[in-house]
């Protein structure tokens, strides 16, 4: 079963990029995220949508 939400480190690992890049993508609005308490989490669907957008523009 796929996890529905990933912390920023997990998202970075799944995308094979650095945590700093994930932070920038979230801040710039290129990668959707949700706030749960004090944690910033990335929905799994948002990761898939980001990759699909990358593929479509390349």
Structural account:
The chain is α+β, with helices and mostly antiparallel strands and 58 residues long. The protein has helices at 8-15, 19-27, 44-57; strands at residues 5-7, 34-36, 39-43. It has a three-stranded antiparallel beta sheet with strand order 1-3-2. A hairpin with a 2-residue loop joins β2 (34-36) and β3. α1 (8-15) crosses α2 (19-27). The termini are far apart.
Concise structural overview:
With 58 residues, the protein is an alpha+beta fold. 53% of the residues lie in helices and 19% in strands. The longest helix is centred in the C-terminal third of the chain and has 14 residues, at 44-57.
- Strand percent estimate: 15-25%
Tell me the series of helices and strands, N- to C-terminal: EHHEEH
Major beta-sheet overview = 3 strands, antiparallel
**Order of strands across the widest beta sheet?**
1-3-2
Tally of strands: 3
